[in-house]
C-alpha cells in the first residue's frame, strides 16, 4: 500500500487537505505521462508534498540518478523525510533566495542558480517555490530537447512571461506543462556555453 503523503512541521501536520482535491491526482498524472522511461535527472524548486510524490514516482524509474529539491527553508525541508526513508537519489539543499552579499565577487550560488553548479541538464523540472520567473530562466539553460517543465499556480499574471521561453504542452486544473521552444534553445546554445565557461562547470547532457 502506498505510503501516505504528508509530514509534521512545527508540531502541525502538513497534508493534502490545504490543496484542491485534484492537486495530488493531477500531479501524479503529469508524472506518469511525462516523467517516464530513461529519465535520469529531476529538479524541483520548492520542496514539500510534491517532493514525496516525486520520490515515490522516481523509485519506479530504474534510470533515475538524481532528484534535486531546493528550498529556502532548511527546517521545513528537513521535516519532509524526517519520518520516512530517503531514497538514495534524493538530494535536498536549502539556500538563501538572494545569496551572500559580502562583495561584488561572491562565488556562491543562490536558490535559483544552484543547479548550474552541477553542470548537468535535467529531464524533468518542477517549479513550485520562490522566484519562479528567475527559476524559469535558469530552467531554460538546463533543458535538453526532451526536457519537460511543469509549474504550479500557472494562471497568476506575474508568471505569464514564461511563455516567451516555453511552449505550452498542456494546461491542467493545477499545473501547466511546458517545453522549451526550439528557437529559444537554438538561440541560447552559444550563451549557455558562455555561462558554463564563466562557472567552470559547462552545462551538458549527463
How does this model look, in words?
The chain is α/β, with parallel strands linked by helices. It has a single domain (7-199), classed as Rossmann fold. 28% of the residues lie in helices and 24% in strands. The protein has five helices and nine strands. The protein has helices spanning 23-34, 49-58, 74-80, 132-141, 182-199; strands spanning 7-9, 12-14, 41-45, 66-71, 90-94, 122-127, 143-152, 166-171, 175-180. The strands form two sheets. Strands 5-4-3-6-7-9-8 form a seven-stranded mixed β-sheet, sandwiched between helices. Helix 1 runs parallel beside helix 2 (49-58). It is globular, with a radius of gyration of 17 Å.
Short description:
This protein has 5 helices and 9 strands; from the N terminus they run E-E-H-E-H-E-H-E-E-H-E-E-E-H. The chain has helices at residues 23-34, 49-58, 74-80, 132-141, 182-199; strands at 7-9, 12-14, 41-45, 66-71, 90-94, 122-127, 143-152, 166-171, 175-180. The chain has a 7-stranded mixed β-sheet with strand order 5-4-3-6-7-9-8, sandwiched between helices. A two-stranded antiparallel ribbon has the order 1-2.
What average pLDDT do the residues reach? 92
Indicate the CATH class: Alpha Beta
Q: How many separate structural domains?
A: 1
| Helix and strand sequence | EEHEHEHEEHEEEH
- How much helix, percentage-wise, in residues? 25-40%
Number of strands: 9
Topology at a glance:
Elements: E1 7-9, E2 12-14, H1 23-34, E3 41-45, H2 49-58, E4 66-71, H3 74-80, E5 90-94, E6 122-127, H4 132-141, E7 143-152, E8 166-171, E9 175-180, H5 182-199
Parallel strand pairs: 3-4, 3-6, 4-5, 6-7
Antiparallel strand pairs: 1-2, 7-9, 8-9
Amino acid at each position: 500500500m502506498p505510503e501516505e503523503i504528508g509530514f509534521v512541521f512545527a508540531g502541525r501536520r502538513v497534508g493534502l487537505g490545504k490543496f484542491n482535491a485534484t492537486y495530488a491526482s493531477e500531479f501524479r498524472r503529469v508524472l506518469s505521462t511525462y516523467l517516464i522511461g530513461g529519465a535520469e535527472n529531476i529538479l524541483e524548486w520548492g520542496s514539500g508534498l510534491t517532493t514525496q510524490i516525486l520520490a515515490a514516482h522516481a523509485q519506479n524509474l530504474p534510470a533515475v540518478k538524481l532528484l534535486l529539491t531546493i528550498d529556502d527553508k532548511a527546517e521545513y525541508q528537513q521535516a519532509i523525510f524526517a519520518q520516512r526513508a530517503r531514497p538514495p537519489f534524493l538530494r535536498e539543499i536549502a539556500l538563501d533566495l538572494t545569496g551572500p552579499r559580502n562583495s561584488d565577487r561572491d562565488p556562491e550560488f543562490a536558490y535559483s542558480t544552484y543547479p548550474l553548479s552541477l553542470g548537468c541538464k535535467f529531464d524533468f523540472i518542477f517549479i513550485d517555490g520562490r522566484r519562479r520567473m528567475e527559476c524559469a530562466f535558469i530552467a531554460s539553460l538546463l533543458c535538453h530537447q526532451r526536457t519537460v517543465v511543469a509549474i504550479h499556480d500557472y494562471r497568476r499574471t506575474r508568471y505569464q512571461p514564461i511563455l516567451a521561453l516555453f511552449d505550452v504542452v498542456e494546461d491542467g486544473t493545477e499545473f501547466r506543462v511546458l517545453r522549451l521552444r526550439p528557437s529559444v534553445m537554438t538561440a541560447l546554445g552559444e550563451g549557455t556555453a558562455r555561462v558554463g565557461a564563466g562557472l567552470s562547470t559547462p552545462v551538458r547532457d549527463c
